[in-house]
Every structure is written in C-alpha cells, then in structure tokens.
Write a structure and sequence with these properties.
Rossmann fold, globular, 37% helix, alpha/beta, binds iron/sulfur cluster, seven-stranded mixed sheet, two-stranded antiparallel sheet, 9 helices
Length: 243
C-alpha cells in the first residue's frame, strides 16, 4: 500500500469544526509514520462519525457494521497476524451496541488495539443520551438533564482495569499536553501489539461541539474541566512498563 500523501498532513475538514476525531486521526497518522508501520497498519472503523476517516487515512481500512469493529479487528488479526490492527470507534459503538464485543476481546486478551473517542453523546445520530453521558447532562433525549436515578453512566476503563490485558489508558484531545500524552498512549498501544502482549485500549475524551451545543472553545473546556472529573485521564495498565 502506497501513501498518497504523508499521514502527517492529514486534513480534518469533514468533521464538524472543533471535533476531536480529526485530532485523533492525525495523532494516529503521526504515530504510524514515526513507527514506520504505514504499510502494516490495518484500521477498522465504525459507521458513525469516525467513518469519515475512510476518506482521509491512507491505511488499509475496513468499515465494520455498527459496533462490530472489535470482532472485525480480531478476525483480521487472526488471518493477517503480521498486520498491526486497530479498531477505531466512538463511545456509542464501543460501550453501547458493541460493549459485549469490547469486554470479551479484553477477556480473551486479543492482540489488537482499540481506540475509543468518548464525547459523552451519540454524535452521528443527533446528540442523544449515551451510556457515557454524565449524570445531569442535557442531551437531545434528556433536555432536563440525565436522571442518574434512572440511567447509569458507564466507565469502560473502570471495567477493564482489573483484567489481564496489555495496555489501558485514557487521554484527552485538549491542549498541547493532552495531545502529546494521547499520542504517547497510542504509540504504546501499538508497541504492545507489535510485542505480542495482547489487548490494548486507549480512550480519548473528545469535544463534540455540535451536540454539546457549545462553541469549539467551550466544548474543549467542558472536556477538560467536566468530563475528566468523571473520567480521569492517565495510564491504568502498562504491562512490562513499555515506554
Ligand atoms: S457530530 Fe460530534 S462527533 Fe460527529 S463530527 Fe460533529 S462534532 Fe464530531
């Protein structure tokens, strides 16, 4: 596979202004170039907002059925064990319709990387309340705020924390420090897969200004000040201390 252009000149023009997907996609492109794995990286993307990446990434890419990115990535890894395989999706695909797939791939310690963009709403379909929406969060389907007595909020990182997997981290797509840390997390996840260590997941907290009904600047602030309270950033598992 030949790159049509360096991944580092990736454009995020198809996403809404201020969306974190473009930032995450660029980080993945930069990491792939720096690690020299452009020819080996196979990405599996979901049908939601992340599907735009099929036009931007020049990696071999498969678009999976909604929420089925993880089992598709597992299948690719089985038939092409020399490939570096990454499932890339939003929190709706990873933690709602695809939650069982995510959990069971982690339980099996499948040797794939999963990158999840958590923006706390269902983005593509219009900003409905998601399992990741914060208690009290106003969304298209919870205009008075998510009622925590009726609807729970899930942190997949908490669920996976005690599993025997290779790497687990959460970053934020906000600010230079947040971006640098997120990039380092993606690099470590790929390195673990290349070492055959097993399942890696990086969750990236991301602004969705369109469905948060905020300006791009305010949405970033919201991610940095509010989302991180419920979803702390950091590294939670790093088997063997891979740096
Ligand atoms: S709806 Fe949200 S997640 Fe989707 S492209 Fe727009 S800002 Fe990004």
């Amino acid at each position: 596979m030949k790159l049509k252009r360096p991944a580092s000149v990736f454009s995020s023009a198809g996403f809404c202004p201020g969306c974190g997907h473009g930032l995450a996609a660029r980080l993945i492109g930069e990491v792939s170039e720096e690690m020299g794995i452009n020819e080996k990286l196979v990405t599996v993307i979901d049908v939601a907002c992340c599907s735009f990446n099929i036009d931007y990434w020049n990696f071999d890419t498969i678009m999976a059925a909604h929420g089925r990115d993880v089992p598709t990535a597992v299948g690719v890894k089985h038939i092409r064990p020399d490939s570096i395989v990454m499932a890339y999706m939003g929190d709706g695909a990873a933690y709602a319709i695809g939650m069982a797939e995510t959990i069971h791939a982690a339980l099996r310690n499948d040797n794939i990387c999963v990158v999840v963009i958590n923006n706390s709403v269902f983005g593509m379909t219009g900003g409905q309340m998601a399992p990741t929406s914060l208690p009290g969060q106003k969304t298209a389907t919870s205009p008075n705020g998510k009622d925590p007595k009726r609807y729970g909020t899930i942190s997949a990182v908490e669920l996976l924390k005690n599993m025997d997997i290779a790497y687990l981290a959460r970053g934020e797509l906000v600010g230079v420090a947040g971006m640098n840390k997120s990039k380092s997390m993606i690099r470590k996840a790929f390195a673990h897969q290349m070492a055959g260590d097993g399942f890696s997941m990086v969750e990236l907290l991301s602004p969705c200004p369109t469905n948060l009904n905020m300006t791009p600047g305010k949405a970033k602030e919201y991610v940095h000040t509010e989302l991180t309270k419920f979803y702390p950033v950091g590294e939670f598992i790093n088997k063997g201390g891979n740096d």
